[in-house]
């Protein structure tokens, strides 16, 4: 059985996710420049968010949280893992085909559920039309997510991590084609979504077939394992539904403020960069590793995996959060302010970015703590915690909108995320030795905070020294690179100096990753 190397796995997934996020920036920069914060931009964002919302509900967010631990244990014990994966593949495909057909019929109501503020204006018609084109993406990407879970559980991370890059490559290519041919920008963009889904599914299916898991569509079977999978997945899907309710509340609030959906989307893209690189890497690698260790009664190994994942999360997430708060304005201005996206829109996006930055560590720590429950087939407890976070999110977003406008939606997301982390942490205390913090993590945590403080001071001093260069056409890109470079060098320099990390550890992990 191929062992899972945690740090090498984190780096593999993180690097590919970073590439995807960079291309995502390119995509959003072009959309913002061409469509600004206008009706077509908001209609596309709502249409694109529909399959992605249900994707997190059915696929990697909920279904995979139940599927991966069961598959990992069957793999560890050699209990016909391929047959189990084939049955899960058929069952998921059948449900999603029926669901996609239903969604086509009720698309107007789905759009209103996402953004009732669209009612009565041109955004509604465009949103329904775009939504019907984009929605089949859920079928392809959900099956791709299941195959990715199979690959990750076997210690193969490259293809699954690279698949999201295809989405952004195809979306960016579609916009270039629209520009070159004079075609309708929105039409080219939205048709690229299902095309990208087919490409992503094809990549991971090919990789899984090479790994010995060639899954094909056939009639689904309701086996005892499938019944058990459904029982475990149901609370996780409900919890996923609660998370999506939080997103729905935010979009509903934003839909009543012109341009706010775009501001929240662009700010979301910025904090999703470190979130994707760190949190997704941890979630993808840690869950199958913990599941296999629990199957082998390896409590010591499970504790070590949890502590190193937490350390990795803090090391890379805290400085990113500080940067998003301290230099949000120059980052947003340089990346997005051009064409139809003006200075006022950039300023609003920067403030939302800073608010999201305050919640970034919480979003990542959730990915560390949730596998503790899912690896034990406990999906009910996170569901109960998610309900509490949902209520808190709704109260802050809706109630706060009367005082703070659409910014309340961002504050609600951040505060609810921290509430969820506190609940997950408190609930994990009953899990015994496997969740005890080791001395190395305790020593390094406060040193990471010291390094972050040094970085913040350097960023503020550099921003003051650069002055207007950060906002002047022609030199602002170079100025932002200088600012980011100062942040990276000051943080890792201080981290090395105070003992928050040893760069030799990262280099060794990278060499192991390369050799693997």
From TrEMBL:
User: Where is it predominantly found?
Assistant: membrane
Topology in membrane: Multi-pass membrane protein
One Pfam match, given by its short name, reads MurJ
Q: Which UniProt keywords apply?
A: Cell inner membrane, Cell membrane, Cell shape, Cell wall biogenesis/degradation, Membrane, Peptidoglycan synthesis, Transmembrane, Transmembrane helix, Transport
Superkingdom of the organism of origin: Bacteria
Q: Where in the cell is it found?
A: Cell inner membrane; Cell membrane
Spans through the membrane: 88-110, 130-150, 157-176, 188-208, 229-250, 270-291, 312-333, 345-365, 385-403, 409-425, 446-466, 478-503
Query: Which pathway does the protein contribute to?
Result: Cell wall biogenesis; peptidoglycan biosynthesis
Q: What does the protein in this record do?
A: Involved in peptidoglycan biosynthesis. Transports lipid-linked peptidoglycan precursors from the inner to the outer leaflet of the cytoplasmic membrane.
Query: Mind telling me which HAMAP family this protein's record contains?
Result: MurJ_MviN
Report the sequence similarity comment from the record. Belongs to the MurJ/MviN family.
This protein's name: Probable lipid II flippase MurJ
Q: What species is given as this protein's source?
A: Tropicimonas aquimaris
- Gene that this sequence comes from: murJ
């Amino acid at each position: 059985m191929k062992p899972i190397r945690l740090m090498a796995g984190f780096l593999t997934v993180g690097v590919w996710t970073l590439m995807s996020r960079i291309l995502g920036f390119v995509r959003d920069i072009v959309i913002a420049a061409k469509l600004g914060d206008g009706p077509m931009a908001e209609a596309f964002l709502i249409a694109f968010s529909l399959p992605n919302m249900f994707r997190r509900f059915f696929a990697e967010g909920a279904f995979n949280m139940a599927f991966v631990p069961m598959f990992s244990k069957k793999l560890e014990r050699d209990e016909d893992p391929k047959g189990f994966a084939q049955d899960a593949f058929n069952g998921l495909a059948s449900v999603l085909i029926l669901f996609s057909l239903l969604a086509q019929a009720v698309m107007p109501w789905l759009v209103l559920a996402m953004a009732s503020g669209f009612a009565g204006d041109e955004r509604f018609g465009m949103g329904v039309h775009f939504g019907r084109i984009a929605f089949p993406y859920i079928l392809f990407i959900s099956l791709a997510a299941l195959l990715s879970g199979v690959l990750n559980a076997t210690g193969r991370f490259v293809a699954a991590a690279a698949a999201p890059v295809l989405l952004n490559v195809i979306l960016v290519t579609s916009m270039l084609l629209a520009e070159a041919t004079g075609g309708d920008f929105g039409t080219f963009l939205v048709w690229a979504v299902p095309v990208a889904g087919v490409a992503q599914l094809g990549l991971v299916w090919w990789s899984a077939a090479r790994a010995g898991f060639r899954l094909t569509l056939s009639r689904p079977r309701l086996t005892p394992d499938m019944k058990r999978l459904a029982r475990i997945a149901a609370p996780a899907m409900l919890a996923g539904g609660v998370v999506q309710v939080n997103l729905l509340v935010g979009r509903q609030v934003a839909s009543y403020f012109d341009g706010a959906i775009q501001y929240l989307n662009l700010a979301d893209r910025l904090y999703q960069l470190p979130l994707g690189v760190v949190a997704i890497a941890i979630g993808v690698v840690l869950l199958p590793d913990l599941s296999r260790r629990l199957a082998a009664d390896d409590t010591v190994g499970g504790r070590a995996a949890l502590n190193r994942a937490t350390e990795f999360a803090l090391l890379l997430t805290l400085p990113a959060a500080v940067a998003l708060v301290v230099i949000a304005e120059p980052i947003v201005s340089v990346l997005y302010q051009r064409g139809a996206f003006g200075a006022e829109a950039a300023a609003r996006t920067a403030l939302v970015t800073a608010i999201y930055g305050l919640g970034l560590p919480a979003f990542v720590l959730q990915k560390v703590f949730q596998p503790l429950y899912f690896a034990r087939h406990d999906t009910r407890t996170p569901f109960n915690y998610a309900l509490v976070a949902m209520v808190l999110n709704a109260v802050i977003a809706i109630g706060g909108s009367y005082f703070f406008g659409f910014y309340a939606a961002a504050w609600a997301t951040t505060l609810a995320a921290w509430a969820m982390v506190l609940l997950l942490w408190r609930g994990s205390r009953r899990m015994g030795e496997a969740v005890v913090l080791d001395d190395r993590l305790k020593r390094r945590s406060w040193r990471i905070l010291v390094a972050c403080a040094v970085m913040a001071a350097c960023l503020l001093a550099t921003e003051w020294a650069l002055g207007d260069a950060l906002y002047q056409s022609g030199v602002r890109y170079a100025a932002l690179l200088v600012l980011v470079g100062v942040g990276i060098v000051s943080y890792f320099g201080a981290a090395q100096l105070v003992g928050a990390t040893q760069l030799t550890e990262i280099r060794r992990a990278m060499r192991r990753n390369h050799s693997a």
